[in-house]
Amino acid sequence: MTSDRLLRAADPAAGWRVDPESSQAQVMLAGILATPRAGSAERSEPVPERRHVTRRQVWRRRIAFGGATAVAVSVAMSTVWSGGPDGHTAAYAVTAKPDGSVELTVRWEQLEDAGALAAKLRQAGVPTEVGSGPPTRYCAGPAERDRTSDALNKLDRRGEPASLDGYLMRPQLFPEGSSLVISTYSDLATQVDYTLLYLAPTGSTSCTISGTLGSARFTGPGPRPTRFTWPQPRE
Prior knowledge:
Elements: H1 2-10, H2 23-34, H3 49-81, E1 92-96, E2 102-106, H4 114-123, E3 128-131, E4 137-138, H5 142-147, E5 152-154, E6 165-169, E7 178-187, E8 192-201, E9 207-208, E10 213-218
Helix pairs in contact: 2-3
Transmembrane segments: 63-81
Region (Disordered): 126-147, 216-235
Keywords: Membrane, Transmembrane, Transmembrane helix
């Protein structure tokens, strides 16, 4: 029809294929609405007002829907990636269980304050200290270390994201006079950051009465090593 042909000729977006949810579409719509249609006085057949209004309404609805979609996606992403104070993802969760055990779920690469985590564990009933280096020796024999295996162990979090680690602590099984140690330090020679969990005599973080658990993270600019050397205390 003549009116359709005239409308397409006057509408610069008639042959334009673009995502109606994009910012480009919103800018184009604003330009269409603000620009007078050329040659409107010479038209032999006026464009029906109903059709003109409907076209504008369709564009507005589609762009409004696109904006709503963008807001919904933004909210969903915030929900997924925010969980801590000030919009930061929570680095850990501490859960005290009815049987007296305590479960720790942690993203080691996001842990910046080991002291705050230690305080949280103490609130849950786990005596905890903070260290700044690896334990240099064992202060318990192999048999005694074996008896601590039920006091501190790593959970199998199969199906969870690889960034999540889980640990189960049973303070009631800690050897008398011992505490959990969270030790964080950097090995400048290998460019690896370590965070270790182990049991030690209270007030002495340099030796361990259990095996060591935790995380090793390469921080250097060079090629990433295929394996890390885990700290081994001497007997």
